[in-house]
Here is the input.
Amino acid sequence: MGRYLIRRLNLFLATTLALFIILFVATRWFPADLSYALSGVALPTTQQQLQIEQDYALHSNVISQFLAYVTERLSGNFGISVTSRQSVLNELAGVLPPSFELAFVAGIIALLCGIPLGMLSALSRSKMVQKTIMAATLTGYSIPVFWLGLLLSLWFGIELGLLPISGQINLLYQIPKVTGFMLFDTLLYNGDYKWNAFADVLAHIILPACTLAVLPFTVVVRITRAAMLNVMNQTYIRAAEARGLPYHTIVLKHALPNALIPLLKHLGLMLGPFASYAIVVEVIFSWPGVGAWLVSGIYQRDYTVIQAGIFAVALVIIFFSILIEVLYTAANPMSRKEMYGTN
Amino acid sequence: MELSTLCTPSRLNAYLSRAEPINQVTTITSRVATRLLMVCGLLLATSACQQQDDSQVPNGLVYCSEGNPESFNPQIVTSGTTIDATSHQIYSRLIDDNTSSSEFLPALASSWTVSDDGLVYEFELRHGVKFHTTRFFTPSREMNADDVVFSFSRIIDTENPFHETAQRGFPFFDSIGFNKLIKQISKVDQYRVRFELNYPDASFLANMATDFAVVLSQEYAEQLLLQGTPQLLDTNAVGTGPYQLVEYVKNQYIRYRRNPDYWGEQPESEQLVFDITPRSTVRLSKLIVGDCSISALPKAGELQVAKQHDDLEVDSRPGMNVAYWALNTKKPPFDDVRVRQALAYAIDKRSLLNAVYHDTAVVAAGILPPSSWAFPDENVELQYNPAKAKSLLAAAGVKNLTIDIWAMPVARSYNPNPQKTAELIQADLKAVGIRVNIISFDWSVFTQRLASSNYDSVLIGWSADNSDPDNFFTPLLSCGSIQSHNNWANWCHKGFDTLLRQAKNITDEQERKVLYRAAEEIIGQEVPVIPLAYAQRMLLKRKNAPYVQLLPFGGIAFDKVSQPEPVGGRH
Here is the structure.
């Protein structure tokens, strides 16, 4: 087990190193002065300029420049934003929680709706039900998210006037930031309008979360269905049936946990597309997350923001992919032998 | 049943052939699944319903603004976005423009006197004015002459520690030559300030009433200097205006709270929030949904949509502004007047106006808009004539020309859609054999990058800061304004400059009008810029939103604003 974890940790470190190398090289291609692209200080004083050159070892060879770059970034110095002249790290800390919140809610929706539907389509004997579900998921899978998001805001926001279509909360509520997660912050907030604010946050998250949930939802349905069909044909299910166990026990206790294992693996593979969908959704619904921040940084040629945004998004994906892989290995008896380093 | 017995294939087959149990499995699973689905559906539905029952939100007003402010001090910027977010909300000026006449209204100065030679202005200050009490600053004294002296000497005194912190200078004051104009600013007594000028200037009071001439707190500046963070003066703003800055989150919002100590009439809304929304379609949809009750700079095409909604209305007034296309006269081939004239002949302003502004603007003949008293009676415009453009280009020996047009992707009050304008110009110029590249950056970096690059031409415009016609000439096209990066044409014409100086030194309106007409004629012949349109200023608002003052010269004021019904309610 220990050896396995160390190997995964090594993988994490190696990928992060590769990420650093790519970012380091890309930064040199930015059409701007290198010290400006690294620090974000547009008009440095002589003293600032010297400090930047020293921090990033700009007068040394490429290797020490790279080391200096990594050291600065790892110690949390991402420079300042070109447009707001505030620390990029602070801005990043402000935009990460809303993104996690949105992704989390979308993930929950996808799982809560996707797993039962997948099971239903696998176990139902009605061709009608199966085909309807599969047609629906195929449609959902093929709909471009930018179009779906706009359509949902047009229907539910503008025409029906049911749901808000942009932002995280009505801006008139002034909720102090504690955790950065608006759903928690409104619950922690003790003032007038507490429950109104909480309901407002819920209403604001519905449309973006549903839009973002569509892609993982369809994948969850399809994987659950395939896995369930596969599992239900296994001999141990027949054994359980033969033992006369009640059928919901068979499905929920014996079949489902095993069917969820391949699902876990696919969730890991889906992180990349999910993250890029999240960026699109954030832009459409003006969600104040890292995606919208990164895109506006690109429009404003805010080089430090672009670097930090890419770094954060990539790092999160790498981290969660490896985490899911570890969980998968831990949960899957078939691959558990890997843990002992025997293969 | 023993496990071993089940494992005999024949029995198993027999067992499996009984279909019912499997069916039972299916029904149970589907029941579980349906229940789960219902639960998620219910969760969503209840949260939506909850929202509908309660439309209670705190008292306040949300304004959908078009972009991030560059700073929180209007002294150091010229962009309308920053002015809107600061000048009339956070700060006050010594005197204010009067919307109905050319007189001025007392603001922080309760009265003022001008010496007979026009060289000495004395302002008597209002008593009992308090600066904002914020998280970072608690004023210990009321506003007095020291604050006024500090605010303006910061601009002209290079020794002042706060002169340096404005890294890009004071563009408006630089463009009107403020440092050359002012001989001395002095404190006469606690509530009296004297400005001594080097030469008489008819536009001095008008300039003191502009959005840029705000009064800062000297006490706050000293506190910042002691803390070693003088640059915060322009970001953590402290002023004497009706609202005080609470929080600014880039790309998201600016939050203000009513200033309880405001010297004027208290605004009715407790809170004012600028919801930063760069895309105008998103602003429109937020307005329809009710996320904001007032929205800035609608595109002309969106007015139709707004008309279909009964609860929306358009607020418009003729603007003191002009949109123009500036040609970099320092760079070949634009240093040749024939090329510049050819470009002016080549573009069809009327069709451009139809496409970009619909009926919300008039074709610009010159730089001065019709709402100015000095608007010339005769037209000096170069009419659309592609044939003439071609022959002028041939005469100048220019072939296979490719030019860059810089056009920002965001709306400004003088041009709701610069990108589209650029595309139409691109099409017009193609007809005379000129290829066009369109270059575009977000507003907050647009002017900075433009200033530092060797551009060909730029689509830009100007919203007047005051009622004086000089405001359209000296800041934009005088030799002195090249330095302050407002003269995008980089055009310096001695005769033109002399005319402007003459016009500033006299006070008779008729005589000045003749001089400004002559100046317009020079622009018409030399074509450093090609005026395109005078746009109306427009706001979209919900019918239940209160009266907002669109100031004639640029900014927007919310002081008289209140919100009769909560804004967050969905309709």
